[in-house]
Specification:
Length: 425
């Protein structure tokens, strides 16, 4: 049962299973933010910019991610739609510091991974995956310091405070359909998010940031079965001996990301941002599962046999993303935003899996903010993401030794509206 831990497309807005939904203002501008100091969401995009955010403030936001995905198998030619449930990643930021001080502190809470994906009953890849549900929460205490009036630095301790995964697949038993479910919680793990922000004039700003890799590890996750044959026959005894595992362990690298951003402010009303990011997906080479007993891999006398370890090839490649967006201040209360982005796929041909049918994708975004009072405002965003159609042939699977996946064509569109509230003081 390898190859599907902590990976899904349903809420993704970046390559692989990465999510870039850090703040409502940024989302409306195509996801830019590394070279800007818009608000407290700088803790996610570039902690070095936090010291340049003028006001102290608190903000909270939530997005509703809904994917429309389909799969057409090579063997049947039948197109099937996925049953994608609504996913609601959220973010919270609080930043504060003395008005005239050179430093700011803050805390960020966000959900960088989270989705629910379910394939149609009886689909061709049911022995690889039928359903996956993922949740994760990061907590990031952050500090930022303005070395000069134009240069600031910052860093945050990234804490994988909560993570859970539930993944399921069918079992090809000679006695009838079976099913296996893996369910586990991740260990608390640590990383860092650091950045530098430089604003030489009121019309130009530049930033760089780096988010480190975190290894998401599940220890003592549970393994449960359904549909195993009742005892009483030789074949039933053999099959049941092949599925004795009751727990599992697995580790997935959540890769590092390096980004650079530029902000241009031609006048007081208009702000334009451009970001480029490189995600170091090449750290994700294989996904290995260790089981407390037999997990059904292999064959024994023509029946499903047993093993206590499984490995699945990934061999992801580093992936670039480019983002462009702008905002225009219509008046003292209303600001409107537009943006676009293009992300390159991290998954090579022949390695596409049903848990992450990744492909190059283009995004279009829009958003607005409205100040209800001098201190309180509402932010809204909308993101549409279209994946390029991705076809994987049986020949590619055979050439790469990745026949634990299924040949066919995937197509995905994602719709992500979002809303947030902010209060500055």
């Amino acid at each position: 049962m390898g190859g599907t831990l902590l990976a899904s497309v349903s809420a993704a807005s970046a390559s692989g299973f990465q999510v870039n939904l850090g703040g409502q203002k940024n989302i409306g501008m195509g996801g830019v933010g590394v070279g800007l100091s818009l608000d407290q969401a700088a803790m996610f995009y570039n902690p070095g910019a936090l010291a340049m955010v003028r006001d102290n403030g608190v903000q909270v936001g939530v997005n509703a991610a809904l994917a429309r995905s389909s799969f057409r198998g090579d063997n049947t030619g039948i197109q099937q739609s996925l049953d994608n449930k609504l996913v609601v990643p959220f973010n919270f930021y609080a930043g504060f510091g003395p008005k005239d001080a050179k430093y700011k502190f803050g805390v960020a809470v966000y959900t960088p991974y989270g989705s629910t994906l379910k394939y149609a009953d009886g689909w061709e890849g049911r022995y690889a995956l039928t359903e996956i549900t993922l949740q994760s929460v990061y907590v990031q205490p952050t500090a930022s310091y303005a070395i000069t009036p134009t240069l600031s630095v910052g860093a945050g301790l990234m804490i994988l405070a909560y993570g859970s995964v539930n993944l399921q697949k069918d079992l090809p038993l000679p006695t009838g359909p079976g099913h296996i479910t893996l369910d586990g919680k991740t260990k608390t793990q640590f990383g860092y998010n650091a950045g530098i922000f430089f604003k030489p004039s009121d019309k130009l700003s530049v930033g760089i940031s780096y988010r480190s890799k975190i290894d998401a590890t599940v220890d003592n996750g549970s393994v449960t079965y359904s549909g195993l044959p009742a005892t009483g026959s030789a074949s039933a005894a053999l099959i049941n001996r092949s599925f004795t595992a009751t727990s599992f362990t697995a580790t997935l690298p959540l890769p590092a990301v390096a980004s650079i951003g530029i902000g241009v402010m031609p006048n007081e009303q208009l702000t334009i941002g451009l970001d480029a990011s490189l995600t170091f997906w090449s750290a994700y080479r294989t996904l290995d599962f260790g089981f407390s007993g037999n997990n059904g891999n292999g064959t024994t006398d023509g029946l499903v046999g047993g093993n206590n370890f499984s490995t699945s090839k990934r061999f992801y490649q580093d992936a670039l993303a480019f983002r462009l967006g702008g905002q225009y201040k219509v008046d003292d209360k209303l600001t409107v935003r537009l943006g676009t982005a293009y992300d390159f796929s991290a998954v090579k041909d022949g390695y596409v899996g049903p848990e992450t049918p990744d492909a190059d994708r283009v995004q279009a975004t829009a958003g607005l903010s409205y100040l209800v009072t001098e201190h309180f405002g509402v932010d809204a965003s909308f993101l549409f993401e279209a994946f390029r159609q991705r076809t994987q042939t049986q020949g590619q699977l055979l050439d790469n030794g990745t026949t634990d996946r299924v040949a066919g064509t995937y197509r995905t569109d994602i719709f992500i509206p979002g809303v947030g509230l902010h209060y500055k003081f």
